[in-house]
Specification:
17 strands, alpha+beta, 28% strand, elongated, single chain
């Protein structure tokens, strides 16, 4: 674990230890406290300290797709790695054809309650349909760097001078929870950098700058809907949470990009290596 991170389990233990019998949150169950803590990680983390991950993912060669990771929240970058460890970017192109067409299956049988359809026994289905309907020009892209990809102990280098020299195209299909690719190479894997949902980790981590904001969030959410808690206490707890959140935001804004990248490179264990 990074020295500037605190595990959620430790935050919850400390929160429970600080409660006393007269505390408005003293009768909250451990399950409720953890649930509020996970919600707080999402609310605070997505705004103040997004977790960036890089993974090497295998392409399904039957339909040129890659399943999105379970903790996927939003896309950052995508590319392939050549034999020299150079990342060649894929350009987003939402015009890639991964449409489906309707097919009709004729049925001569009957269901237990009668024919499938009075007028004609058929079932509507869909199947992949990537047949061409025209050509689409390449779109230009910006150069970018996979900051937390490592190769031979160093940061992943980038090869990218625009759409014409990219390794191919892709689009994100959230409906089917996958990436759809169209490559100019024979690569079988892609490297994706994305925003991850830290709350889905076994024991999520929180930056120390956001620790007090999370504690305040947990307390505020526990008492928010309790009729036995005075309105002024709820207002105080809400104000304290937003004050701690602003303080965390101010501190994290000084956590420079170089420091963040240094932390990522030191602690990232799933970066593809050769």
């Amino acid at each position: 674990m990074s020295m500037n991170k605190v595990k959620l389990s430790q935050i919850i233990r400390d929160f429970i230890l600080t409660l006393d019998g007269d505390d408005y949150a003293s009768n909250a169950s451990d399950v409720a406290i953890r649930n509020f803590a996970l919600r707080g990680i999402r609310e605070i983390g997505f705004d103040l300290g997004k977790k960036i991950k890089s993974l090497k993912l295998t392409i399904d060669d039957t339909n040129d797709t890659v399943p999105l990771p379970d903790d996927f929240v939003d896309f950052s970058k995508l590319g392939i790695v050549d034999e020299d460890g150079i990342i060649r970017p894929l350009v987003m192109n939402n015009n890639i054809n991964y449409s489906r067409k309707e097919t009709t299956t004729i049925s001569t049988g009957s269901s237990a309650s009668g024919p499938l359809d009075i007028e004609a026994n058929f079932v509507q289905n869909t199947e992949p349909d990537k047949t061409a309907t025209g050509s689409t020009p390449n779109r230009p892209d910006d150069s970018f760097v996979f900051d937390n990809y490592t190769f031979a102990g160093g940061t992943g280098r980038l090869y990218g001078f625009g759409g014409a020299q990219s390794a191919g195209h892709f689009r994100i299909n959230l409906a089917d929870n996958r990436i759809e690719v169209e490559l100019h190479t024979t690569a079988t894997e892609v490297v994706m950098e994305y925003i991850a949902d830290e709350a889905r980790s076994t024991d999520p981590e929180v930056h120390v700058y956001a620790e007090e904001a999370l504690r305040s969030y947990i307390y505020y959410k526990i008492i928010e809907r309790k009729s036995s808690v005075p309105a002024n206490e709820k207002a105080r707890a809400r104000s304290e949470y937003y004050n701690e959140r602003r303080k965390a935001n101010a501190r994290l804004s000084h956590f420079t990009k170089d420091e963040a990248l240094k932390t990522i490179r030191k602690n990232f264990m799933q970066a593809p290596k050769y």
